[in-house]
Structure formats: structure tokens, C-alpha cells
Amino acid sequence: MGKIIVYEHINFQGMSREFHTNIANLKDADWNDCISSVKVIGHPWVAYQHADYKGHLLVLEEGDHDFVGKKMNDRISSLQVITENLHNPQITLYEHADYQGKSRVIREATNLARGHDNDTTSSHKVQSGVWLLCEHSDGGGFQYLAREHEHLPNYKAIDFNDKLSFLRPLCPGCGC
């Protein structure tokens, strides 16, 4: 599966701690709101702004992340490892709620802002993998993590209706 090593300062400086499993509240490990850089080995992890995997999220794929960004610096309160099989990802997007209207199957990172499907999606079904759905074509704005076998019939439930501009599957780590 892998692990995540968190550091209290940028560029992997200061105290560090290693995690191998989800932690819903970093206060329990005395690491709440003090993470500035991380190293990920193996499967991706998701850092959340609040305990219990809530609030803004940051996807951390395998590699060294010398700074978690201004939005999440010293604001991470929970960590979750991605356990789904990330090979051969596939998601079906639907124009309207309840899987109605025009549909489109996506298997790779796609910038919808460059075509007819920008800001027109209202529901999805994930066949495989885990997908990062983004409001803006640069990957910014509101972000949502769509998990394997998730069916979301109405984006109004997450205040995301007709806002999807970019999506990409998460990459599996090599676990080296």
C-alpha cells in the first residue's frame, strides 16, 4: 500500500511522522494543523482541511511534495490513503441529473473547457479508479474526489451542477 511521511516545515525540515493507514483526526497523533511538506510512497493519499475527511482536499500522489501549498499549509487535520485499484480508470459523465441526457465515457485526464462539455455535467458513474473533478480547467476551484463504483445522480447535492471543467484519474504509485 505504501506510506506518507509528513514534515512540520517546507522542504522536509523539522520533525516528521510516518503514517501507513487513515487517520481521521490528526489531533489524536499530535500532528493537527502543522504539516508543510510530505513524501508519498506507493498509493496516493488525500489530505483534508478538517477532521473526519472534510473540508478542502489535497491529492498527494507518489513523490516528494516540498510544500503543500498556501491553501493547505499548516491546515491539514486528516489523512486518507486511496485503496482502490487505479489501473484502467473509467468514468461516465452525464449532461443532466439522474444520468440523463448526453453521456460521455472518460478514461484519461480531460480538459472539458476546450470542448462542448464545459460546465454541462450534472451527474456521473465511476466504473473504475478514483477521479479528481475540478471546477476550473487548471485543476483549481472546487474539487471533488469521485471514488470507484460511486454513482452521483445529482451534482446539486455537492453544489457542483454545471461547473465541471477538468477531471483526471489518480495515478497508482509503484510502491518502490
Number of strands: 15
Count the DSSP helices. 0
Radius of gyration: 17 Å
> What is the assigned CATH homologous superfamily of the largest domain?
Crystallins
User: Can you tell me the CATH architecture of the largest domain?
Assistant: Sandwich
N- to C-terminal separation? Answer: 10 Å
How would you sum up this structure, described in words?
- By secondary structure, the protein is mainly beta.
- The protein folds into 2 domains: 2-81, Crystallins (Gamma-B Crystallin, domain 1); 90-169, Gamma-B Crystallin, domain 1.
- Helix content is 0%, strand content 44%.
- It has no helices and 15 strands.
- The strands form 4 sheets. The protein has a 4-stranded antiparallel β-sheet, with no helix packed on it.
- The protein is elongated, with a radius of gyration of 17 Å.
- The chain starts with a strand and ends in a 7-residue tail after the last strand.
